[in-house]
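Translate structure to sequence.
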């Protein structure tokens, strides 16, 4: 994937448009307005910020990368409706069974290939994710690694909702990740326990050290009431670790070009 531009448009929450090799990929679609509430019978999630771009304004979506379908902060009402017009939705095996239609389910390390607009193949590989503590995670979730098949060592990683654990560390051993999109914010829902359900800031630092060549793009750390850590806290943790220069913050509604460079591997 050397010398390819990744066009990254931050939409809000876990939702971003990735344009790579002519393909348009959307992460976890959330398009409901700010103030929407999502009662579950056990707890209520509350959205505090709406999307910077409406789904109608996005145009063609070739692939939706859906980390999981069973939590509203990763797939809200309008986001669910938008799946119908996407080319293919890639998610967990359990999610594919629930959603049906144009949905492909992946287990960890399984992949699906998509022809690109410039005549290449983009491989989407499912990666392990654990949405909370051991024995208390919040159901099946997947992350994703994106590679072009002629250059498989250069990768883009999208964590999905996960904490740092051995499964994420294994991603760093299998792939030379150049861009790591980490779902952060240390999500906590008091009604289901005190544990964090997504990366804490210090876990983001651990991930940055594991993905030692990667630009780190925080995602899914704002826009919902249940996040316990802000951009300021994430920034502070990275600065304290001497890794502040590794972070690339994205602004809502703005497209940023991220260069995915060739890796020069030492002997």
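Result:
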């Amino acid at each position: 994937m050397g010398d390819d531009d990744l066009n990254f448009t931050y939409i809000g929450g876990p939702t971003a448009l990735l344009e790579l090799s002519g393909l348009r990929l959307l992460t976890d679609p959330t398009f409901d307005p700010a103030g929407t509430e999502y009662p579950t019978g056990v707890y209520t999630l509350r959205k505090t910020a709406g999307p910077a771009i409406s789904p109608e304004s996005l145009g063609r979506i070739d692939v939706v990368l859906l980390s999981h379908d069973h939590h509203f902060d990763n797939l809200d009402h309008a986001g669910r409706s938008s799946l119908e017009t996407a080319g293919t939705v890639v998610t967990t095996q359990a999610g594919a069974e629930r959603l049906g239609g144009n949905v492909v389910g992946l287990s960890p390390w399984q992949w699906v290939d998509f022809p690109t607009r410039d005549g290449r193949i983009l491989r989407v590989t499912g990666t392990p994710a654990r949405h909370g503590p051991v024995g208390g995670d919040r159901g099946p979730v997947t992350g994703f690694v994106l590679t072009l098949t002629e250059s498989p060592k250069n990768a883009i990683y999208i964590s999905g909702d996960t904490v740092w654990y051995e499964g994420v560390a294994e991603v760093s051993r299998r792939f030379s990740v150049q861009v790591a999109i980490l779902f952060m914010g240390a999500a906590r829902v008091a009604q289901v326990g005190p544990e964090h359900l997504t990366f804490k800031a210090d876990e983001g630092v651990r991930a940055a050290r594991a993905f030692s060549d990667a630009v780190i793009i925080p995602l899914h750390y704002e826009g919902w009431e249940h996040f316990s850590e802000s951009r300021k806290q994430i920034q502070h943790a990275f600065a304290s670790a001497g890794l502040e220069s590794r972070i690339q913050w994205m602004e809502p509604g703005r497209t940023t070009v991220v260069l995915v460079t060739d890796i020069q591997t030492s002997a």
